[in-house]
Specification:
about 0% strand; single chain; mainly alpha
């Protein structure tokens, strides 16, 4: 991964936690929920891994080393997340959690267990791809990352009823595909010709993801809020409003990019650096939305 390609990812990581901090201020001005920090990191990494695994669908090839580093980061983030969850459930300090308590929570069906298995399998894929001649399609990485995204998403408050997991699952996967694949393209796509091949394919499919994201998000969000007043009187409602505002701005910028950036890239009139800068604009807003989404999943609808 070149330095130029890494800029939107590094900047996105900072903004991701900026979005999470904003959700804290909107929902819990008295103090942050530390459990959301490793969960947000794990979510962000899994989203990028999903995008890297899906790169062949836009005629691009990811770096196995980048996938390996991100998978190892995901493993560590999930372990920390599980440890903090254990402390929260037992009502003890993080430093007082025992390995036995941690194992009990992890193996009791916690979402961290599903994500941990997915991350370890992806790490194993990277090792096999680097050290052996065994050819396992990289799409497997995308599928495993998608499972991790689903496990994290449906473990929140909106997944507690019969239809909630389907709405939240579709919402999370649509968001992860849109954000993750664009981030993966910024990391992996090279040259004018690379963007001329990949961007039109991505742009032709993005409206479907945006449609699923919008419809499922509106239905699930409104179902959790107690009337219009709940949008401003509850922490959950305030985060939801902020997320909707960010999404509206993001859709507007994406529409403008389809009219300006896409035609220029298709005709080889935009440099690689120019395409990465355009992607970085969308990724910045996507990172804010993901940070808000992580805060939303950790906030009680009535809180």
């Amino acid at each position: 991964m070149r330095a130029g390609a890494g800029v939107p990812v590094l900047s996105g990581a900072a903004v991701l936690f900026g979005g999470l901090a904003a959700s804290w201020l909107l929902a819990r001005p008295d103090g942050p929920d530390l459990f959301a920090v490793p969960t947000t990191l794990a979510l962000g990494v899994s989203v990028i891994l999903l995008g890297l695994g899906a790169l062949p669908t836009v005629d691009a090839v990811p770096s196995t080393r980048v996938i390996g580093v991100l998978a190892a980061t995901w493993v560590l983030a999930v372990l920390v997340s599980g440890w903090v969850r254990t402390a929260d459930r037992s009502g003890t300090d993080v430093l007082d959690v025992t390995a036995r308590d941690f194992g009990d929570v992890l193996f009791s069906g916690a979402p961290e267990m599903v994500a941990l298995v997915a991350a370890i399998l992806i790490l194993g894929w990277a090792v096999l791809d680097l050290l052996t001649d065994l050819a396992i399609p990289v799409l497997v990485v995308g599928a495993l990352a998608g499972i991790g995204v689903l496990a994290t998403a449906i473990s929140g408050h909106a997944g507690n009823d019969s239809w909630g997991p389907f709405l939240i699952g579709a919402h999370a996967l649509a968001a992860a595909w849109w954000c993750g694949l664009l981030a993966a393209m910024a990391i992996s796509v090279r040259g004018r010709s690379g963007w001329a091949r990949s961007l039109p394919v991505f742009s032709s499919r993005a409206p479907w993801a945006v449609g699923v994201l919008t419809v499922t998000g509106v239905i699930a969000g409104l179902a959790e809020v107690d009337g219009p007043a709940g949008l401003v009187t509850s922490g959950y409602g305030r985060i939801l409003l902020a997320k909707v505002a960010v999404l509206a701005i993001l859709v507007g910028i994406a529409t403008w990019h389809r009219r300006r950036w896409l035609p220029a890239a298709r005709r080889h009139r935009t440099t690689e650096a120019g395409s990465i800068r355009a992607a970085a604009v969308e990724l910045t807003l996507m990172a804010v939305a993901l940070g808000l989404a992580a805060g939303l999943s950790a906030t009680a609808p009535t809180g």
